[in-house]
Write a structure and sequence with these properties.
The chain is an alpha+beta fold. Helix content is 19%, strand content 40%.
Length: 72
Amino acid sequence: MSTAREKFFLCTFTSRSRRLSRQVRAWDEHQAALLFQEDLEEEGVTARGTVRVTDLAGRLDERYEYQPEVSA
């Protein structure tokens, strides 16, 4: 019997002046990107940039644009 488990992904945010990386545990790369973007928002990252998601086996490399919401 096989049980599906969350995987670990390496998420990296890159902007003109900053680079942050963190391991994220998620079911898929899309969820990993969303969780990482929530972390960026909580940390107060306001710059636009690119989020790169790679599985730790190196078989996956997805990129997402990060555009934080600007509160008035």
